[in-house]
Design the sequence.
């Protein structure tokens, strides 16, 4: 492990510990995890795509990328560097090299079966085609595993592997020829199944051990309700802040009855946590009948929040934060002036100092 990367990781883990971050293991609650590989390639290099590009994710964390030119797997997170992982990296690199080759062969097979390769070979039309593959596995809460292996061609679902039957499912009629080609090759199907059912969960378990503390941490959300009143419509917005992992359930209830489920918008915060929100329109005056309910693995029980009219709560916070902003502006002003004076006194007469903003 790189000394510096190692130390940075320890610092990060230390900081998480200091924040009172709990882990799923410490809570005695297993949560689902996934290992996913994404492959992509395109036929026209002018579009800036390489013939084969691969990314590997554990949950939402990119941990490996593979470069077609160098034929090497590159670790993308410090925790994946662990000293004892030589064997795992060797296995990952070998796997990716194999998939690099497989991808190119599959790409030609699919294009041949769609009569797209003739055009390519004649060089008649500079039409680009793309192939994407997603494969990997999940370990579910009950410790069972599920594998998946799908192809997308020109941005559409094309073929999906079924480990149980060793068959391929054609998502579109024109994928049938390739399905039949691949089903003739039972060795390949068995290899796919062995990877999905044995190797992939094994890799995932080892990666989870390496990323323990980071990948299984639980950061519960804090929940806030804000109100936006425009002429006829009042909107209540429920926000869940700074939580990990990404999965969250947020719903609005009216008189304790759940309202129709709406999609929760979830975005990464950039610091490894997420925020989510869900809004509801309410008739004016009915705000108090609405409650936002939030469920998250980091919470012992669901959190609820209601909009508080500004009697004391929000008003006091408003005053305090107003004060804080005032003080900050004041301090910034003092600092700016001090700096400017210092610069001015140091600068030669007539030299360009700072724009006079203050
Ligand atoms: C490809 O071309 C052959 C011969 O021209 C034709 O029989 C076949 O239907 C074509 N396949 C597709 C998917 O268009
Ligand atoms: C989950 O399954 C794996 C592989 O079968 C086994 O090694 C592990 O001990 C199991 N874990 C639990 C918590 O049952
Ligand atoms: C799927 O696989 C089974 C068993 O290998 C085979 O009998 C069946 O014909 C296949 N189905 C299709 C639609 O190819």
Sequence:
């Amino acid at each position: 492990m790189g000394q510096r990367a190692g130390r940075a990781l320890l610092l990060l883990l230390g900081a998480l510990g200091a924040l009172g971050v709990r882990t799923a293991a410490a809570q005695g609650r297993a949560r689902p995890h996934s290992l996913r590989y994404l492959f992509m390639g395109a036929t026209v290099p002018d579009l800036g795509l390489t013939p084969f590009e691969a990314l590997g994710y554990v949950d939402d964390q990119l941990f490996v990328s593979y470069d077609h030119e160098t034929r090497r797997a590159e670790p993308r997170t410090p925790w994946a560097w662990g000293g004892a992982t030589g064997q795992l990296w060797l296995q990952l690199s070998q796997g990716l090299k194999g998939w690099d080759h497989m991808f190119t062969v599959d790409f030609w097979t699919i294009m041949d079966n769609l009569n797209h390769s003739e055009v390519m070979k004649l060089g008649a039309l500079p039409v680009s085609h793309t192939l994407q593959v997603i494969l990997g596995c999940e370990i579910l809460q009950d410790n069972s595993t599920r594998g998946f292996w799908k192809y997308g061609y020109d941005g559409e679902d094309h073929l999906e592997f079924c480990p149980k039957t060793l068959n391929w499912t054609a998502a579109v009629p024109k994928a049938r020829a390739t399905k039949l080609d691949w089903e003739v090759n039972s060795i390949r199907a068995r290899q796919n199944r062995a990877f999905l059912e044995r190797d992939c969960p094994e890799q995932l378990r080892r990666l989870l051990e390496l990323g323990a503390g980071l990948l299984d941490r639980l950061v519960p959300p804090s929940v806030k309700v804000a109100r936006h009143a425009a002429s006829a419509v009042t909107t209540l917005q429920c926000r869940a802040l700074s939580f990990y992992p990404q999965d969250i359930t947020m719903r609005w209830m009216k008189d304790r009855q759940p309202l129709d489920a709406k999609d929760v918008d979830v975005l990464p915060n950039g610091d490894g946590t997420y925020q989510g929100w869900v809004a509801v329109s309410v008739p004016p005056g009915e705000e108090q009948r609405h409650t936002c309910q939030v469920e998250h693995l980091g919470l012992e029980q669901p959190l609820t929040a209601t909009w508080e009219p500004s009697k004391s709560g929000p008003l006091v916070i408003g005053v305090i934060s107003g004060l804080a902003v005032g003080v900050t502006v004041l301090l910034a002003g003092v600092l700016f002036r001090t700096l400017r004076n210092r610069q001015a006194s140091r600068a030669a007469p007539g030299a360009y100092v700072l724009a006079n903003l203050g």
